[in-house]
C-alpha cells in the first residue's frame, strides 16, 4: 500500500497552489442550501480505467484489443497499470474524504471478482477482499459506495466462448456476477447500476466495432447486444428482488447517456426528428422498462432488425428500474432527415437554421458545453417516464489543450469549474422546479485511461501525474470548488424512495 503521509503532504502543497488562482466563491445561483441538501454529490471512476493490477484478474476484451491493435488506441497505451487504484485506494479514499465527497461510484471488474466469469464460478478471494476493503474504507470515511457492475470490461473468455453480448448466454452469466456482488457487498452497498451507457457500448463494441472486442456487426450486432443487456439487467433485478431486497433494501438502475436533442426550428418536422433521436438513443433502453416496448419510431425505422421481446421478456423488464440514472454531457441541434425514411434525423453542433452553436467547444470533439440541454433533458425524463427519481450518474468535461499541461498548470482547470457551475445550476433549477433529483456524480474522480483515447483524455477533478513513479495525485481547482460549494453542502447519502 502506498504510504499515506507523503501523499497528503503533496496534496496540501498542490491544494495551496491551486487555490492561489481561486474560483469565484459560492454555489451556483439556483443551488440554494435547501436544494443542495436533497442531492447527494460525489464522483466516479470505472474499474478498467483506473484499477491496474492486470495480473490479479482474468483477461478482458480491452486487454486483448489494446495488445493486438495498439494503433487503435490514440497514444498506443494500455491499462495494465492505469492509476494503480487497486494498490493506492486507501490514499485516494482519504483524498475523497478531504474533498468532502458524499459518494464514490466505482465499477467492479467482472474478470477480477470472477476469473471463471461463468455461472457457478467461484469468486476470487483476494478480489473479494479488495472490494470489501474498499467499501469499508469508504464507509469509515463517511462516503457512500455506489457500485456499477458492468462498465465495458467483458471477460475475454465470454467473448471467446459465445460472442459476449451477442448471445443470450450472457444473461445467466451476468446474473451470477450480479448475484455474487449482491451477496458479498449488498449489506453495505445500497445503490447499484447494472450497466453504464448500454447504447454507447452496444453501438461501439458490436455495431461499428471501433471498440473492443471490435465486432462490426452493424444494426444486427448493436440491437442483439441491446436486447441481451436489457434481459440481463431485468434478470439481475429479479434476483435482487427475490433474494436480497428485503434484507438489503437497496435500489437498482442502469445509466443512460442522454444527449439532449433540440429541434433546430419550430417546425413539426424538426420536432419529430428530435423525438426520433431521443427514441433511438434513450427510448431504446428506457421505453421497454417504463412502457413495455421499444419506441414506435424505432420499430418503424428498424423493422426486423430490432429483435422483439416475448411477452414474458417484456413482463420481466417492466418496473425493473428503481430510479433513472442519466449521464449528461452535451446537446445537439436536430432537423428532419430524409423525409421518405421513418425514424430519421440529422444532427449537428451548429444550428442549420441560424448558425448558432450548441455551446462552447471543449477539449473533446464530441462534447460542447451546453448546460441548457441538461435542464431540458431532466425535464424530458421527468415527463416521459412518470416523474421518476433522477440520478445524474456522470457529468464532466476536458478543457481545450488540458492534456498538454503539466505541473501546477495542470491543476488550473477554471474551464471545468465553469462547466460544473453552469451544469449544476441547471440541475438545481430542475430540482427547484420539482424534479426528484437524488444524486449527482462528477465524471471523473481522477484522470484515467479513456478507452481508445488512452491517456490523452482527462476528465478528472483530481490530476494524476502519469510521468511520476508514484502516480502522484493532486486535486485540481475544480475539485476544491466542488468541495467547498457542492460536495460539503449536499445530502449525506442518496435517498431512494421507499
Ligand atoms: C462514460 C463512460 O462510461 C466512461 O467510461 C467514459 O470515461 C465517459 N463516458 C467519458 O467518455
From TrEMBL:
<dbReference type="Pfam" id="PF00232">
    <property type="entry name" value="Glyco_hydro_1"/>
</dbReference>
<keyword id="KW-0378">Hydrolase</keyword>
<dbReference type="InterPro" id="IPR017853">
    <property type="entry name" value="GH"/>
</dbReference>
<comment type="similarity">
    <text>Belongs to the glycosyl hydrolase 1 family.</text>
</comment>
<dbReference type="InterPro" id="IPR001360">
    <property type="entry name" value="Glyco_hydro_1"/>
</dbReference>
<protein>
    <submittedName>
        <fullName>Beta-glucosidase-like</fullName>
    </submittedName>
</protein>
<keyword id="KW-0326">Glycosidase</keyword>
<dbReference type="GO" id="GO:0008422">
    <property type="term" value="F:beta-glucosidase activity"/>
</dbReference>
<dbReference type="GO" id="GO:0005975">
    <property type="term" value="P:carbohydrate metabolic process"/>
</dbReference>
<keyword id="KW-0732">Signal</keyword>
<feature type="signal peptide">
    <location>
        <begin position="1"/>
        <end position="22"/>
    </location>
</feature>
Amino acid at each position: 500500500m502506498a504510504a499515506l503521509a507523503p501523499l497528503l503532504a503533496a496534496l496540501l502543497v498542490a491544494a495551496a497552489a491551486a487555490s492561489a488562482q481561486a474560483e469565484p466563491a459560492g454555489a451556483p445561483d439556483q443551488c440554494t442550501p435547501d436544494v443542495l441538501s436533497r442531492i447527494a454529490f460525489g464522483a466516479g471512476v470505472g474499474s478498467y480505467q483506473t484499477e491496474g493490477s492486470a495480473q490479479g484478474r482474468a483477461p478482458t476484451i480491452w486487454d486483448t484489443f489494446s495488445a493486438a491493435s495498439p494503433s487503435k488506441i490514440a497514444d498506443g497505451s494500455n491499462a495494465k497499470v492505469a492509476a494503480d487504484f487497486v494498490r493506492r485506494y486507501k490514499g485516494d479514499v482519504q483524498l475523497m474524504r478531504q474533498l468532502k465527497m458524499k459518494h464514490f461510484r466505482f465499477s467492479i471488474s467482472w474478470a477480477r471478482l470472477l476469473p471463471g466469469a461463468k455461472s457457478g464460478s467461484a469468486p476470487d478471494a483476494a478480489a473479494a477482499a479488495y472490494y470489501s476493503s474498499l467499501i469499508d474504507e469508504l464507509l469509515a470515511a463517511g462516503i457512500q459506495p455506489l457500485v456499477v457492475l458492468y462498465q465495458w470490461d467483458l471477460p475475454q473468455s465470454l467473448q471467446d466462448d459465445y460472442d459476449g453480448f451477442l448471445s443470450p448466454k450472457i444473461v445467466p452469466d451476468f446474473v451470477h456476477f450480479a448475484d455474487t456482488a449482491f451477496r458479498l457487498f449488498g449489506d453495505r452497498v445500497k445503490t447499484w447500476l447494472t450497466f453504464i451507457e448500454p447504447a454507447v457500448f452496444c453501438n461501439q463494441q458490436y455495431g461499428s466495432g471501433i471498440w473492443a472486442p471490435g465486432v462490426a456487426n452493424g444494426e444486427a450486432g448493436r440491437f442483439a447486444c441491446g436486447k441481451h443487456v436489457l434481459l440481463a439487467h431485468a434478470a439481475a433485478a429479479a434476483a435482487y428482488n427475490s433474494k436480497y431486497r428485503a434484507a438489503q433494501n437497496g435500489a437498482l438502475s442502469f445509466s443512460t447517456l442522454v444527449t439532449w436533442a433540440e429541434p433546430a426550428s419550430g417546425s413539426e418536422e424538426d420536432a419529430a426528428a428530435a423525438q426520433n433521436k431521443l427514441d433511438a438513443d434513450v427510448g431504446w433502453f428506457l421505453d421497454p422498462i417504463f412502457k413495455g416496448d421499444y419506441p414506435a419510431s424505432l420499430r418503424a425505422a428498424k423493422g426486423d432488425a430490432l429483435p422483439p421481446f416475448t411477452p414474458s421478456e417484456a413482463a420481466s423488464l417492466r418496473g425493473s428500474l428503481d430510479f433513472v440514472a442519466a449521464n449528461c454531457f452535451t446537446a445537439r441541434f436536430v432537423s428532419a432527415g430524409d423525409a421518405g425514411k421513418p425514424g430519421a434525423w440529422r444532427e449537428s453542433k451548429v444550428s442549420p437554421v441560424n448558425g448558432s452553436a450548441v455551446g462552447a467547444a471543449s477539449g473533446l470533439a464530441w462534447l460542447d458545453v451546453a448546460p441548457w440541454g441538461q435542464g431540458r433533458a431532466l425535464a424530458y425524463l421527468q415527463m416521459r417516464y412518470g416523474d421518476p427519481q433522477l440520478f445524474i450518474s456522470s457529468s464532466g468535461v476536458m478543457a481545450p489543450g488540458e492534456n498538454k499541461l503539466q505541473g501546477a498548470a495542470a491543476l488550473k482547470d477554471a474551464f471545468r469549474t465553469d462547466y460544473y457551475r453552469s451544469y449544476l445550476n441547471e440541475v438545481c433549477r430542475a430540482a427547484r422546479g420539482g424534479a426528484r433529483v437524488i444524486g449527482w456524480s462528477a465524471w471523473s474522480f481522477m484522470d484515467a485511461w479513456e478507452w481508445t483515447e488512452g491517456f490523452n483524455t482527462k476528465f478528472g477533478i483530481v490530476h494524476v501525474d502519469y510521468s511520476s513513479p508514484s502516480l502522484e495525485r493532486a486535486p485540481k481547482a475544480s475539485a476544491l470548488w466542488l468541495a467547498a460549494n457542492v460536495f460539503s453542502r449536499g445530502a449525506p447519502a442518496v435517498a431512494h424512495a421507499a
